[in-house]
UniProtKB/TrEMBL annotation:
PANTHER family: CENTROMERE PROTEIN E, KINESIN HEAVY CHAIN ISOFORM X1. This is Kinesin-like protein. Keywords: ATP-binding, Coiled coil, Microtubule, Motor protein, Nucleotide-binding. SUPFAM superfamilies: P-loop containing nucleoside triphosphate hydrolases. PROSITE patterns: KINESIN_MOTOR_1, KINESIN_MOTOR_2. The lineage of its organism: Eukaryota, Viridiplantae, Streptophyta, Embryophyta, Tracheophyta. ATP binds at residues 92-99. Pfam families: Kinesin (PF00225). Residues 433-451 have a biased composition (Basic and acidic residues). InterPro entries: Kinesin-like_fam, Kinesin_motor_CS, Kinesin_motor_dom, Kinesin_motor_dom_sf, P-loop_NTPase. It comes from Hibiscus sabdariffa (roselle). Residues 356-420, 535-653 form a coiled coil.
């Protein structure tokens, strides 16, 4: 669905010092922000007609990065997680607040930090898809692409393939699984950017930085987990967060030498960006050719501009009077950008181009296993292995590209050598012919048959005698119109017409310009050579040709030497590729062994788990028994206590009995004693015969 690019402008707070510098207060102006409109006013309040612009958002100096993110960028970021390409970039003159907006401050993090956090927060909430996120960070400085994650990766080339679209070959990518990791990487990238730099500000205002996240995702099929059919579509989206170079005119950055070169390049990138935006804003009828290829920046941002992407642009403005002209330029740029329509759609691919797919079979299974055992250390190890694999893949890809380039230039050189040889043969035959003809003084013959010289236009003579057609090959570069340096009066960076006029309609193809091998273009002395040439002229011409022959031989030797070197280089590159392949094999083996190790660990873990479960079961059984026994013991104890009590009671009773018994005994004994004494007394009173008494 076609939709407009979202454009906002942001006015930064004034730097107090520069306000006091305004001397001519009669012409003093200020920018007024009302809702989504910004307009230039005279100091006493009257608006200046014609300088009033409306945008999707206009943020005044009190606005925080949080608000900018929330209103302008959040949707682009969320859409990127859902599979739409996204780009957010900051445009504006140096010191207007681009870096503040993108990177922010510790109290108010910028768009990049917020985007990174948001991406990870969002993917955590999506439970039915799995994600793979890679990040890269590059800088375009003097039209050269440098890797900010790997200082050794410099002057990288842009390539295009059907599967991967436009990409920077050899750029380091890191797989990441949390926001902190990304922030750390970004910090290391910043350190790399400072590496060997004496004047950081100068560089940062002249270079563009692009932070890139590639978000791949795949639906999790709960029914057949572990079964990766080749028809699974994987969503791949690219998110670019771009801090552009300062958009100020070159006249301001001034000076010559290196700075001018930088200025020219930076200006070129931004100028092409301006051109692209101009053309796109002119609507469908003029969209025939958009000069994306004219600069590295526009090439990389190609999909973001008028293509398959959701894009938001924030144009930062410096409010000071001294910057009014620049600010007007920025507003013009912003209002053109506002007219661009993009057509974003979810990118689903079925091929192996998605990294997720390529790595999935080997690693995903491992990861799932690990999720079961929740081992963070092992997760880290897996991440490292994945990153290593990616690194090797990128390295191999880079070498392959280099080899391809080498092959191309090798072929070109071979062709060149063949041309040269042909030329030499022709020249030799010409020289021998010339010697012959001068000795025979055959110059009286009609020269029109032999030569076709015109005063202003050198044409190759027809060497019928040599039997070989001679083809003069001019370098492509020599046919280009003169590339004029940018004049100081150049008024607007984004002025496509001036650029067009300056270059006589020629649209430079940077890649072409840079990859064309340097060839010496030989020229003949600028003399008028008429068809009726005299003998002297002819001799001179012969001399020239001889000189040229010598030059050509020299050049041929040089080319042969270079060719030899190329062959050696090719050999070396092949060797390196073989080494890398070996390394990759080793790495794969390593991966295999660690996979096995994880497998055995997992099995051990399973066994231990089972053992623990059975132990737990027996422990619970024993504890049940124990409770039962304890209950029984308590009951018995209770019984025992009552028995003891009963025994005590019985003992007390027995005691009472024995006391009673003893007293009875005692009373019986006393009764018996009494009875005995009474009997004694009676016997004594009535003595009876013994037998009677015995009877009794
Ligand atoms: P640029 O990247 O466009 O060259 P910077 O982002 O470096 O500009 O901003 C220049 C200065 O202005 C910095 O010191 C920055 O902290 C400050 N600044 C820019 N925008 C704001 C803002 N919205 N609020 C507060 N300070 C800002
Ligand atoms: Mg900056």
């Amino acid at each position: 669905m076609a939709e407009k690019i979202c454009v906002a402008v942001r006015l930064r707070p004034p730097v107090s010092q520069s306000q006091s510098q305004d001397q001519d207060t009669s012409s003093a102006t200020f920018w007024r922000v009302e809702d989504n409109r910004i307009s230039l006013h005279k100091l006493h309040g009257t608006p200046i007609p014609g300088i009033s612009y409306a945008f999707d958002y206009v943020f005044d100096e009190t606005c925080s990065n949080a608000k900018v993110y929330e209103l302008l960028t959040k949707d682009v970021i969320h859409a990127a997680v859902d599979g739409f390409n996204g780009t957010a970039f900051a445009y504006g003159q140096t010191s207007s607040g681009k870096t503040f907006t993108m990177n922010g401050s510790p109290n108010d993090p910028g768009i990049i930090h917020r985007a990174v956090n948001d991406v990870f927060r969002k993917i955590q909430m999506i439970s039915d898809r799995e994600f793979l996120i890679r990040v890269s960070y590059m800088e375009i400085y003097n039209e050269e692409i440098n890797d900010l994650f790997a200082v050794e990766n410099q002057k990288l080339q842009i390539h295009e393939s059907l599967e991967r679209g436009i990409f920077v070959a050899g750029l380091r990518e890191e797989i990441v699984n949390n926001a902190d990791q990304v922030i750390k990487l970004l910090e290391s990238g910043e350190v790399n950017r400072h590496f060997g730099e004496t004047n950081m500000n100068a560089r940062s205002s002249r270079s563009h930085t692009i932070f890139r996240m590639v978000i791949e995702s795949k639906g999790i099929d709960s029914r057949s987990s572990g079964d990766y059919s080749s028809s699974d579509a994987i969503r791949v989206s690219v998110l670019n967060l771009v801090d552009l170079a300062g958009s100020e005119r070159i006249a301001k950055t001034g000076a010559g030498g290196v700075r001018l070169k930088e200025g020219k390049y930076i200006n070129k990138s931004l100028m092409v960006l301006g051109n692209v935006i101009n053309k796109l804003s002119n609507g469908a009828k003029q969209r025939a050719h958009i000069p994306y290829r004219d600069s590295k920046l526009t090439r990389i941002l190609q999909t973001a501009l008028g293509g398959n992407a959701k894009t938001s642009i924030i144009c930062t403005l410096a409010p000071e009077e001294v910057h009014v002209e620049e600010t007007k330029g920025t507003l013009l740029f912003a209002s053109r950008a506002k007219r661009i329509t993009n057509c974003a759609q979810v990118n689903e691919i079925l091929t192996d181009a998605a990294l997720l797919k390529r790595q999935q079979l080997e690693i995903e299974e491992l990861r799932r296993k690990l999720q079961g055992s929740r081992s963070e250390v092992l997760e880290q190890e897996i991440l490292k292995l994945r990153n290593d694999m990616l690194k090797y893949e990128l390295e191999r890809e880079k070498l392959e590209m280099e080899l391809e380039e080498e092959r191309k230039s090798h072929k070109e050189r071979e062709q060149c050598i063949r041309d040269q040889q042909l030329k030499i043969e022709n020249l030799s035959s010409l020289v021998s012919d010339g010697d012959r003809s001068s000795s025979q003084d055959s110059m009286k013959e009609s020269p029109k048959d032999e030569c076709n010289y015109r005063g202003d236009d050198f044409k190759t003579p027809c060497f019928k005698a040599a039997g070989n057609a001679f083809v003069a090959k001019r370098s492509n570069n020599s046919q280009l119109p003169h590339f004029s340096p940018l004049p100081d009066s150049f008024s607007n960076v984004a002025d496509e017409d001036t650029w067009f006029k300056m270059n006589k309609g020629y649209i430079a193809d940077l890649d072409l310009l840079q990859t064309t091998p340097a060839r010496k273009v030989q020229s003949f002395p600028p003399q008028d050579i008429t068809p009726d040439c005299s003998n002297d002229n002819y001799k001179e011409e012969l001399q020239n040709l001889k000189r040229q022959l010598e030059l050509a031989i020299k050049e041929k030797n040089e080319l042969e030497r270079k060719h030899e070197e190329e062959i050696q280089l090719n050999g070396r590159l092949m060797g390196e590729i073989a080494e890398l392949k070996q390394e990759l094999d080793v790495n794969n083996n390593l991966l295999e062994t660690s996979k096995e190790r994880y497998g055995s660990l997992e099995r051990e873990f399973q066994l231990l788990k089972e053992e623990r479960d059975s132990l737990q079961k027996s422990v619970s059984e024993s504890s049940q028994k124990l409770t039962f026994v304890t209950d029984q013991k308590e009951n018995i104890l209770k019984d025992l206590n009552s028995e003891v009590q009963r025994r005590k009671d019985l003992e007390a009773e027995i005691k009472q009995f024995s006391v009673a018994f003893a007293s009875r005994q005692r009373s019986l004994a006393s009764i018996h004693g009494e009875f005995k004494s009474k009997m004694e007394k009676l016997r004594a009173e009535n003595p009876v015969p013994l037998h009677k008494s015995l009877q009794y």
